[in-house]
Every structure is written in structure tokens, then in C-alpha cells.
């Protein structure tokens, strides 16, 4: 990892916690985690219903909030949707193209590209999630899947704005809630992050490819976090299930701090 790249530890709570439960969790977290190194960023991605109240409670110097999803249009007749324009006072980051959005809600690469553009247009940092399915992996289509998701997700991102994007590699077959999930091994993750940097290098140049942050997500827990953070080219973790328990999320944060201190 180059010294310029931060370590990101992100909790994706998915559709869990009421606003009261989310507030209690944050209270516990802020109590437990006192010092956060400057080159580390902890981000919580709660359900949209909790964003406003957490944004008032959160110590923004220590923690940031992310939206799990949003509509790519800034305003208009989109019943039931929330735009990034409406969210931007509450969050600094926005997850785009999570595989659960792609496969459960049929979001296309084009829509995901528009969401990445909407986040940048509204001053938020997009966290673009990409990753192949089990079938794609079995059919040796990992590289083409990664390339097409990157090409679609970054379609509207200029050379000037690419440094604002974070990429999260989350192979769908490694996400704990998916049937038959198994954790990815370090070799698979290294190969994927190399492919991502290669593709970024082709479009935006070598320096940009070196600078962009790539995170890993999929069945990370407190026992495996350290190993994943040791993979060259991996700059942090996007955590689902294990982030729902404050104790295990705090343990992952401590592990990440230890890794930073080792540098
Ligand atoms: P798990 O950590 O539960 O596998 O979820 C990963 C994920 O989807 C984070 O966005």
C-alpha cells in the first residue's frame, strides 16, 4: 500500500437496525473508539431512515456516514425514491452498485454509472462496488465481468474526478448472506485488484491506477480482517454481517489500526 492511500473500514448495515438501535450502536462505537489515525477513515452506511438522526449524533471528525443507495436523478417525479441531492447534508460517501442492488433490484451498469456521476456532481465520494458472480467465476469470466462493471460504473467519470472514486471489490459468491458463500482467498483478491488497477491505468493512466483506493468485501470478520488488510493493493474493508455487532466491528477497527502502525 502506498502511504498516500487511506485505510477505509466501512460498515454496511444493509436493511438492519431501527433508528433507535442505530443510535445506540453509534453511541457504543463513539465510546469505544477514541483515537483514529489520520490515514484511516471509518464509515457507517445505515439504512436511509437512520441517516438524519445519526448525522446529528455522529462525531464527524472521527466517523463519516454513507448512503447505501439513492436515485441518480437530483429531483423529480420518482415516488418512493431519495436523491443524493437530498442526502448530501447527511452523508459524505455513497455506495453505488452493490451486488444486492444489481441482482435483487436489477440495477444496470448504465444506472450505476449515472449514480456515480450523481454522487460526484453533489460533492460525495462514490464507493463503486463491483464483483463477479459464482457462475461468471466458474466460466472464467471474472476479468470480463470486472472490466464491464468498471467501464459502466466509471462511464461519466472524467480524468479530473477519478481520484474522488473508491472501488470496492466484492465477489458475489463471497458475500455471507448468499447461498453457498465462501470467503475469497488472498490470491483471488490480489488478482482482482491487479485487474482493476490495470483497467484504471488503461483509461486514466498509471499514476491514477496507483492512487485509487480498492477495498475488499465478502465474509470479512474479526478473525480474517487482518489477513485481508495485508493483501498488497487492498486499502480497506467493506463489511456486512460482522459490522452488525459493535464488538466485532470495533475489533476489526483495532486490527486495522494495528496494521497502520506496522507501516
Ligand atoms: P458480508 O460481510 O456479510 O459478507 O457482506 C459484505 C457486503 O455485502 C458489504 O457490502
Write up what this structure looks like:
By secondary structure, the chain is an alpha/beta fold. It has one domain: Alpha-Beta Barrel (TIM Barrel), CATH 3.20.20.70. The protein is 42% helix and 15% strand. It is built from 11 helices and 8 strands. An 8-stranded parallel barrel has the order 1-2-3-4-5-6-7-8, surrounded by 5 helices. The longest helix is centred in the C-terminal third of the chain and has 19 residues. The radius of gyration is 17 Å and the shape is globular. The structure holds 1,3-dihydroxyacetonephosphate. 1,3-dihydroxyacetonephosphate binds next to strand 8.
Write the layout of secondary structure elements.
Elements: E1 7-12, H1 19-32, E2 40-45, H2 48-57, E3 63-67, H3 84-87, E4 93-96, H4 99-104, H5 109-121, E5 125-130, H6 134-138, H7 142-153, E6 166-169, H8 186-204, H9 206-211, E7 213-217, H10 225-229, E8 236-239, H11 246-262
Parallel strand pairs: 1-2, 1-8, 2-3, 3-4, 4-5, 5-6, 6-7, 7-8
Helix pairs in contact: 1-2, 5-7, 7-8
Amino acid at each position: 500500500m502506498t502511504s498516500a492511500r487511506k485505510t477505509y473500514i466501512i460498515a454496511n448495515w444493509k436493511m438492519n437496525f431501527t433508528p433507535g438501535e442505530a443510535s445506540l450502536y453509534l453511541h457504543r462505537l463513539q465510546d469505544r473508539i477514541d483515537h483514529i489515525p489520520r490515514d484511516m477513515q471509518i464509515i457507517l452506511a445505515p439504512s436511509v431512515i437512520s441517516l438524519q438522526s445519526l448525522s446529528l449524533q455522529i462525531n464527524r471528525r472521527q466517523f463519516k456516514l454513507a448512503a447505501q443507495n439513492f436515485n441518480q436523478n437530483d429531483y423529480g417525479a420518482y415516488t418512493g425514491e431519495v436523491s443524493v441531492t437530498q442526502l448530501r447534508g447527511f452523508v459524505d460517501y455513497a455506495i453505488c452498485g452493490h451486488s444486492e442492488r444489481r441482482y435483487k433490484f436489477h440495477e444496470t451498469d448504465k444506472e450505476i454509472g449515472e449514480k456515480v456521476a450523481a454522487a460526484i456532481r453533489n460533492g460525495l465520494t462514490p464507493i463503486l462496488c463491483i464483483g463477479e458472480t459464482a457462475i461468471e467465476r466458474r466460466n472464467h469470466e471474472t476479468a470480463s465481468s470486472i472490466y464491464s462493471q468498471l467501464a459502466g460504473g466509471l462511464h461519466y467519470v472524467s480524468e479530473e474526478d477519478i481520484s474522488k472514486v473508491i472501488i470496492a471489490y466484492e465477489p458475489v459468491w463471497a458475500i455471507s448472506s448468499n447461498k453457498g458463500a465462501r470467503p475469497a482467498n488472498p490470491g483471488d483478491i490480489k488478482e482482482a485488484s491487479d485487474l482493476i488497477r490495470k483497467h484504471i491505468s488503461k483509461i486514466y493512466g498509471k499514476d491514477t491506477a496507483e492512487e485509487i483506493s480498492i477495498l475488499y468485501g465478502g465474509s470479512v470478520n474479526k478473525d480474517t480482517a487482518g489477513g485481508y488488510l495485508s493483501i498488497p493493493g487492498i486499502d480497506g474493508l467493506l463489511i456486512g454481517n460482522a459490522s452488525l455487532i459493535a464488538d466485532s466491528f470495533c475489533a476489526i477497527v483495532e486490527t486495522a489500526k494495528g496494521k497502520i502502525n506496522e507501516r
